[in-house]
Specification:
The complex is a heterodimer of chains A (168) and B (184). Chain A has 168 residues and is of the alpha/beta class. Chain A has a single domain (3-158), classed as Rossmann fold (3-Layer(aba) Sandwich), CATH 3.40.50.970. In chain A, 46% of the residues lie in helices and 20% in strands. In chain A, strands 2-1-3-4-6-5 form a 6-stranded parallel beta sheet, sandwiched between helices. Chain B is of the alpha/beta class and 184 residues long. The chains are: A alpha/beta (168), B alpha/beta (184). The A-B interface holds A 18, 41, 43-47, 49-63, 65, 79-80, 82-84, 87-90 and B 20, 40, 42-45, 47-48, 50-60, 64, 76, 78-79, 81-82, 86, 171-172, 174-175, 178-179, 182-183.
């Protein structure tokens, strides 16, 4: 089974049926699986804070949500995470491509990478880092944890996890 | 008419529906005029009333009305293409367009100058876009609910505010009673 399919199967097994995405090259395979899965309502967002608004609404409508985005989005969404997701105590699994880590070809990505974990820590957001493919074995438990505690939870997935950047 | 007068007029129209209300004075006004468990008051996060309401409409079947402002839509323009391309007929976006940032001291917005939010919504692909005058808002809103078609309403009104207290209800209480209203 591909890692993309395993991730999406874990979402579905945990009743996550509403997923919004803002694309990243590393996340393309997962986004394809999300789009193709008959049990998932996939609504692409134009910006990640907009996506978190959609997720808040979907949660209050009875559907478990998730957002898939790049780590640069942490800079975009801090206000929304604090004043909507955390203030109203809502669960939100965030599957995040961790750009700017080892094997990154684009220097500018490193500028947000160095702040990513510090910001998540400052905002008291439980954070998990997938570096090897076997790290994804914890995804099921992370999703259960997220919906147990009603918090936003970050799952950072770096280039090594996805098998590098190919031919760049 | 100013926004609070429109809210007073539409209160009987929206009372039995799920309402997501914009941050700041709009939520404070609606809370004072006609507090209902089926009202979700935004205490922060400018711009996301349309997105929260739209996610709610996509997730369940009851009619959802997002009450938004021109300034808030301007800050989350990406919402309009998302709404246009994921049609759900239980959703109404009511933009109360007074051409100003009311909660922060009535600074003018571009919607009060050259930018037409109804033209933007149409250009984004929204199919039922109605621009109306303040006094016609209850009638237009009721017609949109009855039509069972996703509708974007831009209600043009005067800028101006009334003095009223902030909402002190705990956000988790707002959310919990709202979710019970959704399920009821």
């Amino acid at each position: 089974m591909s890692i993309h399919k395993k991730i999406v199967d874990d979402f579905v097994a945990n009743d996550v049926k509403f997923i919004t995405t803002v694309p990243c090259k590393q996340l393309a395979g997962v986004i394809d699986e999300v789009e193709a899965h008959p049990d998932i309502h996939h609504v692409p967002s134009n910006k990640e804070d907009e996506g978190m608004g959609l997720c808040a609404g979907a949660f209050m409508g009875g559907k478990r949500p998730a957002i898939i985005m790049q780590n640069t989005a942490i800079g975009v969404t801090l206000n929304t995470l604090a004043t909507l997701t955390q203030f109203y105590r809502m669960p939100l699994p965030m599957l995040i491509s961790y750009r700017g880590e080892l094997r990154e070809p684009v220097a500018c990505q490193v500028e947000m990478a160095v702040h990513t974990k510090a910001l998540l820590n400052q905002f008291h957001i439980p954070t998990y880092h997938f570096h090897k493919e076997s790290d994804a074995d914890e995804l099921d438990a992370i999703l259960k944890y997220t919906f147990m505690c009603n918090k936003p939870v970050a799952i950072l997935t770096d280039a090594s996890f996805w098998g590098g950047y190919g031919d760049q | 008419m100013i926004r609070s007068e429109i809210l007073r007029e539409i209160a009987p129209v929206i009372r039995d529906h799920l309402v997501v209300c914009n941050i700041g004075l709009p939520s404070q006004e609606l809370h004072m005029i006609d507090d209902q468990p089926s009202n979700f008051y935004m205490l922060g996060t400018m711009g996301l009333s349309s997105s929260i309401g739209f996610g709610l409409a996509l997730a369940q079947d009851k009619t959802v009305i997002s009450i938004d402002g021109d300034g808030s839509v301007l800050t989350n323009f990406g919402t309009l293409p998302t709404i246009a391309n994921n049609v759900t007929d239980n959703y109404i976006l009511l933009i109360i367009d007074n051409g100003s940032y009311g909660s922060t001291g009535d600074q003018p917005t571009y919607a009060g100058k050259k930018t037409s939010l109804s033209a933007v919504a149409t250009a984004c692909g929204c199919e039922n876009v109605v621009e109306c005058q303040d006094v016609d808002t209850p009638k237009v809103l009721q017609a949109a609910i009855d039509s069972k078609k996703m509708t974007i309403i831009v209600s043009k009104c005067d800028s101006g505010n009334i003095k009223l207290p902030v909402i002190t209800m705990d956000p988790v209480v707002i959310r919990d009673r709202f979710m019970k209203a959704v399920e009821a």
